[in-house]
Amino acid sequence: QVQLVESGGGLVQAGGSLRLSCAGSGRTFSNYHMGWFRQAPGKEREFVSAISWSGVRTYYADSVKGRFTISRDNAKNTVYLQMNSLKPEDTAVYYCAAAPITRTLVDDLRQARGYFYWGQGTQVTVSS
């Protein structure tokens, strides 16, 4: 089992930036593809971005493409989400999640069902 802890959320004005971090512990971090999801009040959890175990392949939701960048540092057991040009509609609780490479194909990383471990979430609020 891997434990995930997100940090870096907060309140920012529209057009601003935030960098989220997700620190993993308990298992070999490079054994997991990693993803970011978000959930706004009254809405379902939605895919934001994902990165393969090696960092070679990345995936983005259309709504964040060109504004968000996912990266990882396996030596630090951490995945990051750099969020630029933030919009009020980006307001949500952001969750990181881990998908075991032995059980989840990279082609499935946009689906929440592919992830076996989840963090507690960090709130991002973008004011207009």
List the helices and strands and how they pair.
Layout (H helix, E strand, L loop, with lengths): L2 E5 L2 E4 L4 E8 L6 E8 L6 E6 L6 E3 L7 E6 L4 E6 L8 E9 L16 E2 L3 E6 L1
Parallel strand pairs: 2-11
Antiparallel strand pairs: 1-3, 3-8, 4-5, 4-9, 5-6, 7-8, 9-10, 9-11
Principal-axes geometry comes out as: globular
Could you tell me the number of beta strands? 11
- SSE order, one letter for each helix or strand: EEEEEEEEEEE
Q: Which class best fits the helix and strand makeup?
A: mainly beta
**How much helix, percentage-wise, in residues?**
under 10%
Integer average pLDDT: 96
Q: Give the helix tally.
A: 0
How can the largest sheet be summarized?
7 strands, mixed
The portion of residues forming beta strands comes to: over 45%
For the CA atoms, what is the radius of gyration?
A: 13 Å
Low-confidence stretches: none
How far apart are the first and last residues' alpha carbons, in Å?
A: 40 Å
Question: Overview of this structure, please?
Answer:
- This protein has about 130 residues and is mainly beta.
- It is about 0% helix and about 50% strand.
- The chain has no helices and eleven strands.
- It has strands spanning about 5, 10-15, 20-25, 30-40, 45-50, 60, 70-75, 80-85, 90-100, 115-120, 120-125.
- Strands 2, 4, 5, 6, 9, 10 and 11 form a seven-stranded mixed sheet that branches.
- Strand 7 and strand 8 form a beta hairpin.
- The N and C termini lie far apart (about 40 Å).
Key features?
single chain; 128 residues; mainly beta; four-stranded antiparallel sheet; 0% helix; 49% strand
